[in-house]
Amino acid sequence: MQGTLFDIDVEIKTKEPDISEWGTFRDSLRAPVHGWFTYPAGFSYKAVEHSIEQADLTVGTSTIYDPFMGSGTTNLVAKSLGFNSIGVEAHPFVHRITQSKMNWDISFDELNNAIEKIQKQVSKAERPEKLEPFLKQEFPELILKCFLPETLFELWTIRNSILKLDSTKGTKEFLRTALICVLRDVSIAATGWPYIAPNKTKVTSMSKKGWETYRNRVLKMYGDIVEINRKAYKGKSTHQVLNGDSRNTVGQIADESADHIFTSPPYLNNFDYADRTRLELYFMGEAKNWGEISDQVRKKLMTSATTQINRTDSKYQFLEGFKFECPDQYTFLSNAVEKLSELRLTKGGKKSYDLMTIGYFNDIYQIIKDNFRVLRKGSKALYILGDSAPYGVHIPTDELIGQIGVAIGFSNYQIQILRERGGKWEKNPQRHNVMLRESVVILQK
Ligand SMILES: C[S@@+](CC[C@H](N)C(=O)[O-])C[C@H]1O[C@@H](n2cnc3c(N)ncnc32)[C@H](O)[C@@H]1O
User: Fold this and answer.
1) 50 found inside a domain
2) Lowest mean pLDDT among 64-78, 236-250, 307-321, 425-439
3) What are phi and psi for residue 436, nearest 5 degrees?
4) Contact at 8 Å (CB) between 217 and 182?
5) Whose CB among 128, 154, 303, 389 lies 3.0–4.6 Å from 134's, allowing a Cys bridge?
């Protein structure tokens, strides 16, 4: 597609950036601090850096806002470059990890001290005679399937030792994050991302020891902190890392307080962010089953998965404000929803894509309105996202977000395609053959 990307004419630039991976977490996984927690929904830190370079921002005073902060890619880049940042994340567990990623003030002496204490606990921990029944009392079935009993006992000891440390909050959070980030490394189940296959064994992890892998991870993470601090802008910047709901941030974020928005909302693709952290929540003892994950996480997120839908709930109607302010988009989506509600009756899974679509666009409408309020006049909001085709019904989410933005007050929008997606499914007869894409939608206030 022709067009401009973040104000650069990509057709005539001789050194074009490779934009095809900007919607994926690959670059970030290899970067210090960014890659601590593998978040399959994350995007590339290079995309954020590039958009900041192109925007008219001032180091030390300009503020960058990410309403779907996730693992904090936008905020980490802002901090490295010396800009202020605000991030909102509704998933409490992910928010807490990101908060610790944003703390680069870790004392080596204190950390070393804490590590020695944990090591002592691990070496003197008395392994129960009947280890497996003991672990069964502590952990849900999924966790028992994912780890060798000896390793799980070591991880359990580390987890409890961290809780008992008398270190500062920052150090304890750092150590907690390291433990969470090591879980999938030492798991013997195929804990691929995002979901877990407990019945498939990952042989490469059979010989990994819990304590050693953990200690190495802590040291590697500390090395990352040293590196990021060394390269970072040395002046002062402020960072608000909020656990909240970006559909309505009135009272938390002031009007016209952001000079740039860079974000990636959930896609309309049935990805369950709550389920993504199931292994971690179960291991940390923060949830024991689906219901607890729903209460703590699923209910707090904007609609983007059928697992969030309860068909008896009457809230799945388009909002009056959306119908009134965005009549064309409402008409388009009403037709799509009608098709989806007919199609679901012909499918085995009877997935609630119809209600999911209504919920998704109600939420997107509120978020764009709130983003408009928070953004300073003359600034831009950039959204990385993919379109989708539930049951083969194409929903051009990027176009719709652009149009909704203009309908609620933005002066114009542009779309730049990052990559085509979905080709690998072509041979699967169960899948639709609509070619999908990942794009950046740029709204100008
Ligand atoms: C596509 S991910 C963003 C990932 C992020 N760009 C990164 O690099 O890690 C979307 C995020 O939005 C979060 N989310 C969902 N509903 C939300 C809401 N109402 N308010 C704030 N965050 C929400 C999800 O938990 C998820 O972390």
Assistant:
1) no
2) 425-439
3) -105, 170
4) yes
5) 128
Taking phi first (over 0 means left), then psi (-120 to 50 degrees means alpha), and beta for anything else, what does residue 84 get? Answer: beta
In a domain? residue 264: no
For residue range 339-360, list pLDDT tens digits in order.
999 999 999 999 999 999 999 9
- What does the buried/exposed string (b/e) look like for 360-374 if buried means 16 or more CB atoms within 10 Å of the residue's CB? bbbbbbbbbbbbbbb
Cα-to-centroid distance, 244 and ligand 1 (Å): 11
Which structural domain range is residue 213 located in? 108-231
The structural domain count of the chain equals 1
Is the CB of 71 within 6 Å of ligand 1? yes
Does any domain span residue 173? yes
Strand partners, 9: 4
Query: Helix %, strand %, coil % for the chain, to 5?
Result: 45, 15, 40
Handedness of CA 272, 33, 382, 10 (dihedral sign): negative
Is 163 within a domain? yes
The answer to which of 344-348, 406-410, 431-435 has the lowest mean pLDDT is 431-435
Per-residue pLDDT at 367: 98
Strand partners, 89: 243
Number of helices (H), then strands (E), belonging to the chain: the values are 17, 11
Whole-number Å distance between alpha carbons of 234 and 237: 9
- Atom index in ligand 1 nearest the CA of residue 25 equals 8
Q: Which two tokens stand for residue 64?
A: 């960058």
Q: Is the shortest distance between the CB of 273 and ligand 1 below 6 Å?
A: yes
Closest listed residue to residue 36, CA positions, set 222, 163, 297:
222
Q: What is the mean pLDDT of the chain?
A: 91
Q: Which atom of ligand 1 is nearest to the CA of 245?
A: 20
